[in-house]
Amino acid sequence: MSSIEVKLEEKKVEERRPEMIEVPKEYKVYARIIEIMTGIAVAIMVLSLILYGSHALPPYVTLAEIVKYWKLAATKFWMVLKGIKIHGYDWIFAHLAHADMIGMISVLFLATACFVGNIGLAIFAAMRRDIPLLTFAVIECIILLIGYLKPYIML
Amino acid sequence: MASQVARQAWVYLVIVVGLALIFSMIGITQAATSHVISIPLWYWPVSLFFLTLGIGMLAPMAGVGGGVMFVPITSAFWPFHMDFVRGCGLCMAITNALTSSPKFLRTGLGNIRVALPLVTVGTGSAIAGACLGLYITQAFPYGKYYIKIALGAILFFILAVMVLSKRVEFPEVKYVDKFSRWLGLRGYWYEPSLGRVVEYHCTRAGLGMLAFVGVGFLAGMFGLGAGWANVPVLNLILGMPIKAATSTSLCIITMTDAAPAAIYLAKGAILPLLMIPAVLGMYIGSRIGAWSAVIARPRVIKYIFFAILVFAAIMDIYKGLHGLHMI
């Protein structure tokens, strides 16, 4: 039987699926949270691309500037190009009137999706007194928070 | 019969288009960087879009993540600094994992209870890896060449893991240790090919957490998704069935790569005009690829991907050594 036939056979079995299995509610909540946040992130990326492509908003860094300096390390790139030392997220919010900087917001949504999802998990675990899940969801939230705030709490 | 032929034709079309996109983008970029041809500025974001579209179309059929292909190829053939390549790679890996994991969580294939203890150590070491990776390129004049050589060496290690590690479809877990039992590491899902619900228990959570110190570190340092390492750890150490391990690996990537992505952003190592086309290309490509993978997974794609990885690894090491004036 070829691999294609096997896959078709699987498909037939799936159609006769006898019952839906019960997935823990916290999994569904986590899935919904990350789905919404990723959807927003992708929408922001598309919006940023449209704004850039239609010249509705000017870019903070033009493509010509990127091509000129992209062989430099990130710190040097910004120092040579804009004379700024990047440290944290303030520079993104300070230039939101630029099409490309709007796209940066999408990364914040992608990076924080699991943090929000873990808060959802922790709430469910606390309600069910599920100590192992609660412990690791809280630890993960703290580690993620340290990662996000690292530029402000460490050099 | 006609629909089977049509499906087979679709798979071959996706393979041909995917490979054509990857190789044509590499070829044109090489010609442009060697000043053989001159190209307009818009080529660069467009080339990234089509490259990641091609990778996304083929990666699910080859059973690998997109990040592990993107970072070596772009660092070997595109002229950007390693910082921007790794930042872009992390954004791609995380977007891919975030879009794929919800459907696995809803079917029970993705298991957060198993993933969480591993990602707590994995995220911590990924943060350390990201900081060290950025420190090396910024503090040392030849830092990017060290990273390139290390990436090339790591690629050979990844290939060895992929080729040599045996995948056990349903590992037999004879004994569940105390810690794993306390964590409640078990799960179940409905397996259509068997026509029944598959239940499993995981063990050796402590050893798995130890392994994730290294896995997270490599993910953060090189901007890789690290699915190539997650799956063997879940399957061979914790005894998780391969299908559940592959799905849970995606849930793990959503968490381990999140903090490093924020760190790269906070250091200015993510350029939207490069990141957005690459992420969108992968986003569209992986959807086409995932749909095609349901129909067929020809083994030849895996070998082609391995060959590309070997070539990219050699190029990375060569460029690194050349940059250090050692060859």
Provide a descriptive summary of the structure in words:
The complex is a heterodimer of chains A (155) and B (327). Chain A has 155 residues and is mostly helical. Chain A has one domain. Helices cover 74% and strands 0% of the residues of chain A. Chain A has seven helices and no strands. Chain A has helices at 3-15, 25-53, 63-69, 74-82, 90-94, 99-127, 131-153. In chain A, helix 6 (99-127) packs antiparallel against helix 7 (131-153). The longest helix of chain A is centred in the first third of the chain and has 29 residues, at 25-53. The radius of gyration of chain A is 22 Å and the shape is elongated. Residues 1-16 of chain A have low confidence and may be disordered. The radius of gyration of chain B is 20 Å and the shape is globular. Chain B has one domain. The termini of chain B are far apart. In chain B, helix 4 (82-107) packs parallel to helix 12, helix 5 (112-139) packs antiparallel against helix 6 and helix 5 packs parallel to helix 8 (205-222). Classes of the chains: A mainly alpha (155), B mainly alpha (327). At the A-B interface, helix 1, helix 2, helix 3, helix 4 and helix 6 of A face helix 1, helix 4, helix 5, strand 1 and helix 11 of B.
